[in-house]
Structures
1.
Amino acid sequence: MRRKPQLTLDDAFRMAGAMRAAAADKKFEPTIAIVDFSGALIYLERPDRQSPNSVEVATLKARTAVFRERPSSQLEQRVKDQPGWLMFPNGLAMGGGVPLFHNGECVGAVAVSGIAHDDEPVAEVGAAALRTDS
């Protein structure tokens, strides 16, 4: 039987806290979504002033990152040359989703929405918070 590492809620809290702090340094309040290896949502945070649409956007960015095991921004780049990739299931071709790895295995993804070009850099802070404790 294979054993697979899994994200915990404490992992999600740690990553979300790191992302919230990184965004606050720039006076931003992003929507944050964290999914497990199956794409199931395990954490969601939408600040009062964020659009309800940012929930779906952040969640889809995270699912894109976990299902492709690479940042969602790579799908964004790929569709520029091959628009057919827009049909990728559970995919959103927008930067802001970052996969999470533990011992070389994808265990989930984190994504940020609502702060434009800073989405992916802030999501990277969340991924780094997991790596420093793994």
Note: The two ends are 23 Å apart (CA to CA).
2.
Amino acid sequence: MATTEHFRNGGGTTFPFVFPILANSDLKVEVYNATTGLWELKTENTSGQTDNDYSIINTNVVFNSATPSGTGNVHTYRQTNVDNPAAVFAAGSSIRAVDLNDNQTQVLYSTQEAADQVVREDDLGLASVTSAKIATDAVDSTALG
């Protein structure tokens, strides 16, 4: 199974990621805020900017300043943009292998991300998991067994 995300211990400025990305915008970086209890999405420095949170240098996320110390509180993950195909084909034009490969890689990455995604409390709606639903599911699953 492909690795599409990492949880790293904070307290530093440089965090490696070993999964491939198609574009820098596909890499997402969050840092856990212990005060609010929420994950905060950070912003990449682009086009020579240094007023955002981090830069991508080779296969490292490099923060402008040290992240808060903590265990597993720096989350890097890939979220491939699939709103538009990597390559678009036009009638009468040649079909290039590189374009076919780019489209296939885009779909492959998106599929890997869906299969590997860690479900966190923030991903669930407030009423999606209740005591009554847990009790009902527990009874239903024993009846099926």
Note: The first helix runs from residue 97 to 116.
